[in-house]
Amino acid sequence: MFQIQPFVFNFASENTYLLFNENKNAWLIDPGNMNEQETKVISNFITENDLKITKIILTHAHIDHVLGLQWAFDTYKVPVTMHQDDKEVLDMFQVSGMRFGFELDHINVDLEYVIEGDELDFDGEKFKIYHVPGHSPGSVVYHNETQKFIISGDVLFEGSIGRTDLYKGNYEHLIEGIKTKLFVLDDETQVFSGHGNPTNIGFEKQHNPFF
């Protein structure tokens, strides 16, 4: 069974997740820690629970989801998994930082790309990959059918959807992707979003005002 530990980090109240199992293996998802204090919080949790980071996973590469990415890569020395269509977003990290008044170094990490239809293996458990652009060009959702949950990034929130007024955003693509790839999942499927509280597919189909 997986455990999911959220951490709320940085100026955007972004959800960073640690996904781990009884073997103490863990995926670090969207590391948004932006200062020493936040880094210490997640680092201590990993150490105290004797977790081994086997993958660093990105739902997308907007600045608030990757502020701790260089630290994570340098510390745990595992490749970063993401969709190639967000590579250009990742390359804009320094420029994005300037817009928020931050002086940031260029991110230099090893990348592994996933596409629609891929499956990632986590100690025998499969995670399906859904490419759902619209918030960013390479937004992906990670789905575990066995335990019925998705890591949705900024695609779908409790009562909302991701912004579509950012670089290469597209409202129609996002709505269509959610309807055809996420709303077809079991209603009990939990949704762990990039911001805010967890929700589930059934609730969002019934109550999300965007649908």
TrEMBL record:
<dbReference type="InterPro" id="IPR036866">
    <property type="entry name" value="RibonucZ/Hydroxyglut_hydro"/>
</dbReference>
<protein>
    <submittedName>
        <fullName>MBL fold metallo-hydrolase</fullName>
    </submittedName>
</protein>
<dbReference type="InterPro" id="IPR051453">
    <property type="entry name" value="MBL_Glyoxalase_II"/>
</dbReference>
<keyword id="KW-0479">Metal-binding</keyword>
<dbReference type="InterPro" id="IPR001279">
    <property type="entry name" value="Metallo-B-lactamas"/>
</dbReference>
<keyword id="KW-0378">Hydrolase</keyword>
<dbReference type="Pfam" id="PF00753">
    <property type="entry name" value="Lactamase_B"/>
</dbReference>
<feature type="domain" description="Metallo-beta-lactamase">
    <location>
        <begin position="13"/>
        <end position="195"/>
    </location>
</feature>
<keyword id="KW-0862">Zinc</keyword>
